[in-house]
Amino acid sequence: MVALSLADQGPVSAQTSPARTIGHSVELAQLAEELGYTRFWVAEHHGVRNMAFAAPEILIGHIADRTSRLRVGSGGIMLPNHTPLHVAEQFRTLEALHPGRIDLGLGRSTGTGDDPTRDALLRTPDALEKFGEHLRQLLGVGGRVPLDPDDPYRELIASPAGVPLPAVFLLGSSVSSAELAARAGLSYAFLCVNQDPDVAVQALRRYRVLFTPVAEGDRPLAILATRIWVGEDDEHGEALAAPERLAVLDYLSGDPRPLESVEQALARTSRLTDAQLVARDKVDLRGDVVGGIDRVAGRLAELVEASGVDEVMAISNIHNPEDRRESVRRLAVAVGLCPAPVSR
């Protein structure tokens, strides 16, 4: 049985405020723990109308306080927005408060799609290009690797001293990011959204082949993160996916909106605008896992076999919070965490 985890992007619906979305995330994490999920990660997005989470380092501590076993982490911290020292201090603090339960997932984007927000977030204009250097500094000041004698971070101490940096994951969606994670001795999570899953298979296999331990105890750990919707049957699963898929077309066509209800999304999907039709032709849905329990179970088994991953991480943005919880329950059944749907 493959390990199963959740990544929560904080989906905001037309009927749910961003503040209430945070409350729903806590409830979802508690359900995930009850069902036997391994991790619960929260995202960092800025200026995205239908995603509520911009400060994962705060939300991680809040969720960890309200769960007891679940690993809680970032999916991810967008390193170009932050200084390596500050990230190391934040996550050492979280690790001190919740020993052995914190994950630090790192990404190299800014978590936004518009230029003004991106420029406001970047701590330096060249932060995107210097991701590799800043990653090494974070690992160095966090005590995982030595730094060069002339590195300005070499003499710094990330407080609280003596607390280990939590498990570090590199997040990516390319073969090159898999190679970077492998050579750095880091765990790796591949985001297979809007692209051919064969790329994920190639990257994840490449990661395992090239993995080189850097610190004592380093072991390869590969996660496949993808969008998963599990319905009462195949048709219902496709319906649950409709609001998120339409929201992507809205965003790409310049008309971003919060998630609509299934009924509203299905109605609008039948009468897409010319701009949405152009956007649809550019979106690759082959990485999505959608359907009833049996279809989802079969597709996940294929992906796990092909990629050799240790863990599957589901992204399930659904308009109705209860529908999302039910999808999470069915997914637990699909991978064998529980034998039948669990009622609360």
Automatic annotation (TrEMBL):
Gene3D superfamilies: Luciferase-like domain. It holds the Pfam family Bac_luciferase. One of its GO terms (molecular function) is oxidoreductase activity, acting on paired donors, with incorporation or reduction of molecular oxygen. Residues 13-310 form the Luciferase-like domain. GO terms for cellular component: cytosol. To bacterial alkanal monooxygenase alpha and beta chains. This is Luciferase family oxidoreductase, group 1. The lineage of its organism: Bacteria, Bacillati, Actinomycetota, Actinomycetes, Frankiales.
